[in-house]
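Changelog-adjacent note: as of this version, every example in the card shows the full chain rather than a window. The one below runs 151 residues end to end.
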Amino acid sequence: MFPTFAALHFLLAFALVACLSAELALLKAPAERISYTALAKIDATYGASAGLLIAVGLYRAIYLEKGWAYYSHSLPFLIKLTLFAAIALLSIYPTIQFIGARRGDKIMEQRTIANIQKIIHIELMLVVVLIVCASLAAKGVGFVTSGVRRQ
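Full-length structure tokens:
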């Protein structure tokens, strides 16, 4: 059962990155040619992927793998959770803009599109750092217990 959850966790992470990449690709078109319906659907898939990713990841951390006693003392794991929360917060603005553009059938201003592109680039950079933290946590780097660090 462990490999199934691990594979699902990876697939959801890849889906999340694919959705961000697809959003960026769609936003490269001129504002009047952007499919805001497609953007909203991709963003909904992104949100679902993120929600399932955190649920599967926490399930793995608490009940499978090394267990919560291990991960709750792993500095890279705690940083990873913080990064995930930061990425989620950053995604609020683009989501609101996509929904608004789709519902109102309006074209987003170029400045708004540029801001969203910057946010998505930041999200993708944070995902890279998150992946590094996940690797470090899995290998026991940054494990802290009773004020004593163990590597």
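Structural remarks: The chain has a mean pLDDT of 90.
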